[in-house]
Write a structure and sequence with these properties.
heterodimer, A: 222 residues, mainly alpha, MetI-like fold, B: 244 residues, elongated, disordered C terminus
């Protein structure tokens, strides 16, 4: 065993370096989850519309996104956004846009499965009551689909939170970067990697324990 | 915007063209992902089995606890952080590990990260089987090892093959995090050549195409295996999951 030394760790390091990154990681997770659910639901509805003109772009988009590594997607957006709008927008904003676009593809697959899990009879009953497509979706299908999908959605959110560390590729200031920056100043990066792993572990383990409890409750109700 | 594909014919300053370098990088991506796949399958299946051992001896109980802890440990830390731990932290704690090549450390990192997902799938696959299967095997006088070898695993593997297929594709995509510790794989290549040549779009397009082709190839190979080991009349349930 050789020199690991945690004596330099104090609250100051946390508040000066880590906190800012942690807030960004959390913000990125929340924005990408909400944005991903909204756009993902739209993509799922396009795929299930039965209209080829709507279906095809959604299929291409979802399968395209899902076959590329997230790191490459992050790099792509970071390269393309300044190219398209003519000015640089910063790594953090670029990462946020990337994650919403990327997660939409994953959430759309979850939503599609959720919508398909609702028996046809529900839609038909809605139609028999004279509901329009929009009413049927909004009042009958989506509320049930969301409920069925909540555990999977939350699990995806945990994975998403872990994946926010990949913004390392474009140098955005997230939680991992916060730990590394603090560690570099004290020349103790290895110790900070361990602390980072610990903090990620506690957050993700806690959240997945919550999801398991929720899952048990939902399973009883159904 | 005009694309200039000639960039791939330029010399990279070391006597090879960017095209040749790209195929080298592709080779690295495939070997990192392939080796990590072997590590993930071996350790993941072992852990998945241990988690479902019947709790009739103390040893079994402890083995199951160990495997559960293994899964939680490797599942709840981001893969990039795990790579850093393997590459920077472990060699510092254990100086003997400084002799181990970076490639091996990254393969272990990626492999064990993926093993937690494999173990989770296999556990679910085994537990999804009717309990009577295990009891029938016991009634036949099978040992625990024989029960797994001849009764539980053959069915469980067929059940988990579809999610295992997407996990294998995830592993291939996750191998891109090796860029962070200077393994000369595709993502690293993309970042570096983008900087050297400023032809980012051409380079990214080519690298993206290679990733897509590789992921598709993995998918086809797994589908082929799935067809080959199909048991007529045996319906296995599909599985919806997240993950990247």
């Amino acid at each position: 065993m050789s020199a690991l030394d945690f004596s330099f760790v104090d609250w100051d390091i946390f508040s000066k370096f880590v906190l800012k990154g942690m807030l960004f990681s959390v913000e990125l997770t929340i924005v990408a989850t909400l944005g991903g659910i909204v756009f993902g639901t739209l993509l799922a509805l396009m795929r299930l519309s039965g209209n080829k003109v709507l279906e095809l772009p959604a299929v291409v988009y979802v399968n395209g996104m899902r076959s590329i590594p997230l790191v490459m997607v992050i790099l792509w957006f970071f390269l393309l956004i300044p190219f398209l709008i003519g000015r640089s927008i910063g790594a953090e904003l670029s990462a946020t846009i990337t994650f919403v676009a990327f997660e939409a593809a994953y959430f759309s697959e979850i939503m599609r499965a959720g919508i398909q899990s609702i028996p046809r009879g529900q839609t038909m009953a809605g139609q028999a009551l004279g509901m329009s497509y929009a009413q049927n979706m909004r009042l009958i299908v989506l509320p049930q689909a969301f409920r069925n999908m909540i555990p999977v959605l939350l699990t995806q959110t945990i994975i998403l939170f872990q994946d926010t560390s990949l913004v390392y590729a474009i140098g955005a200031y997230d939680m991992l970067k916060g730990f590394v920056t603090g560690g570099k100043i004290y020349g103790r990066v290895e110790e900070m990697y361990i602390l980072a792993a610990l903090v990620y572990f506690v957050i993700c383990f806690g959240l997945s324990a919550l999801v398991r409890r929720l899952q048990a409750r939902i399973a009883i109700i159904r | 915007m005009t694309l200039d594909w000639q960039v791939f014919l330029q010399d990279d300053g070391g006597g090879r063209t960017y095209l040749e370098w790209m195929f080298d990088a592709w080779g690295w991506t495939l070997s990192v992902a392939g080796s990590a796949w072997v590590v993930a399958m071996v350790s993941g299946c072992l852990m998945g089995i241990l988690r479902t051992l019947p709790p009739d001896t103390r040893l079994n109980v402890w083995l199951a606890r160990f495997a559960n802890a293994w899964v939680e440990l490797f599942r709840n830390i981001p893969v990039l952080v795990q790579i850093f731990l393997w590459y920077f932290v472990l060699p510092k704690i254990f100086p003997a590990m400084q002799q181990v090549p970076g490639f091996v450390l990254v393969v272990l990192g990626l492999g064990f990260f993926t093993s937690s997902r494999v173990a989770e799938m296999l556990r679910a696959g085994i537990q999804a089987m009717p309990r009577g299967q295990r009891y029938a095997a016991m009634a036949m006088g099978f040992t625990t090892w024989q029960t797994y070898r001849y009764v539980l695993l053959p069915i469980a593997f067929r059940t988990i093959w579809p999610p295992l297929t997407s996990e294998s594709m995830n592993l291939l995509k996750n191998s891109s995090v090796a860029f962070a510790v200077s393994i000369a794989e595709l993502t690293m290549y993309a970042m570096q050549v983008q900087e050297e040549t400023s032809r980012g779009i051409e380079v990214y397009l080519a690298v993206t195409a290679l990733y897509t082709v590789s992921a598709f190839a993995v998918n086809r190979v797994m589908a082929l295996v799935e067809r080959r080991m199909q048991v007529p009349g045996l319906v296995v349930a599909g599985n919806v999951g997240g993950g990247h």
